[in-house]
Amino acid sequence: MNIRWTPGLAVLTLAACGGIGSGVSQLQADPLYKAAEAVRAAPDCAVASGLGRSLPVPAHGGGYAVLLYPVLISPSKSDALTPQYRADFAVDGPNAAARCVKIASGAALSLGPAVPPGVSNRDYYAAEASLFAVLPKLCERYRRGSPTALDREEASAFFDAFQRIAEPGLAPYYYRLNPEFWEWLRAAGGRSLAKPATP
Amino acid sequence: MSRPRLSALAFLFSLSAPLWGQSTPLPLPPKSPKSAAESRLVFRYPCTFQYTDGAPYTPEVRSFECDYLHASVETEVGADQYFNALPTLAAQKAFLESALPEADAAHDKWVLDIAAAVKADSPARLPKSLSSEARIAKLAKLNWKLWNDSIAASKPFLWPPAQPDSYLRGEGRSYPDSWKPYFEPTFAESRGISTGVDTTETGMIDSAAARLKARLSAKLMGLVRDGGSGPTLADLNRAFDGGGAHATVAAVGLTAGPPPSMPGPPGLRPGTISDLNVPAPPSPLDTIPSGSTQRADRNYFSRGPAAGAQRLKDDATLAAWHALGVTKTIGDPYAKVPYIVQQLNGTCGVGAQYEALKARGQDVTMAGLTKTAFDHGWYTEYTSGAGAMGGMYLRDTGALLKLHGVASTTTIGTATGQELATAVRASGDAIVAVNPKIFWNDPTVPDGAMHFVYVSGMEVDNKGAVRGYYVNDTGNGEGGRFVPIKLFDQAWLHSFTAIQPPAPRSP
After folding, report:
1. What is the pLDDT of residue B448?
2. In the CATH scheme, what is the code of domain B326-499?
């Protein structure tokens, strides 16, 4: 049977099937990404809609840690404000529920853009995928002890991805999540976050 | 989360923070005993200068000169009290003889600077050959630059407004009337730019509607009756679904067979497509609205011209599906479009509950609900004053509904698509948490952010599969946005609030 179909109508029907455009996050099934997202559901974490979740870093003693910080969205830009909580979580195992600790008091201040300027969605998702891919392996190496020459490549890959998309103004807060990890990273790959002036 | 469409006054507040604290501060006058008999000048807020015996100071101090004093005197007490505390009449006069010529010179400069800004940022400079999308984008940038330039020019006269301790607890933004004269030329020019944007957007909507009507009423209906040569059923399958989960026409409820008799009037209602049985489509061509109120509420171009063009395409696709009879709408989302509000920073959770309550006939206001949420501790404020922001606690989504007698259940982080679909099928709506970076396709938003939207309906095919959800988004004021299921599945955070269905309407 034959149906006469105008190309325009075909375009109309196809248009609705994917307006996502230039790249989408592929991390929804990633265990670490899911665990980081699950922080919001933890009874211990008073998560509000204004709070965004930072990138995870290995926590001291096991698991990972993220910052929860207000994201102020204005026309054409978004600002990261003073982080309000630190959340520690494990990817699996008996202590999988996140634990949150309030780390700020008083009015939150703007700490600059929430995404480094000029990063497209496509570049962001690519860097994010790279970070989440390398982070579990890097974490294993970190937990083994002092870094070796074999750790350099992964350390470098992690820091490249981190610098590409991490909130620039939150650097001191990321450092304080686990200073030991950032110093280990420096020893492993030569590059890391600057040690903040105030502890 | 919020992404307010730029209004002139919202712009003023979004940029007002850097203005304060940039004038040279004046030292507080030293305290000294004053003679009760000495005549002195009294500066009464906002702009009256009199001697203590009531005689006016001459020459009269003009209002822009007072604005200059208010803006430039930076002490805890304000310009008027500072002036009144100067130790002697001679000191007061010396102050005015120094400050007023400065104010006059600043005003002369303002006149020139504002005229230059209006001229430089005029839309007349744009090339005529721009596409509609490019024109809208350039006009929006021009408007932004115009306000930037105007604020810079007017800075010497703009002094901080009184602000409530908690902005979000207050009833709305406040700013002094004294600001308005400095922006009169800018308001006029900005209105002209906004009119240009509205005209272009309306043209895009009209063109999309006209193209759709031409295709559906002429091409498709002609196709229905002709049954002539052309693409095969396999071509139709590929074109219809784009290779998705329902890759065959049969999978969406169309079957081959002898055509039934043609019901209804000619025009928009086809009988059959060649050998396929098509159920009679229920709705007329209503997905792209023709009325100005619905167009304004739908706010197609809130996220920019490219996003608006995509929404028009999605709405045209909906109309095609309806005309083919392959999907139906659950929840009457277009009737809920008027409930859309532009929320303040971080009141998306309040906004979604506001819309759910309005859909149930409740007489509530955003300001009232925000204050209630704040007072109960369901909503927390991270910053206060102009440009403040906060957030509704995830666990308390539904608290405002409960307070107004509407039951709900919130699932955080683990909800499935099937659970959401079941809930929306039952009540016609839901409140859903989404990742705004994906939902708005916005590169400036980090991936870890969160935002609440009000789902006002859904589109299902003849097999019951969800083809997309309709959303009222208080973050950018978009009403009745159809979100195809592929995008929705990527963007939602598997957290939602199922809401008790509305009471049936009395006949």
Report:
1. 92
2. 3.90.70.10
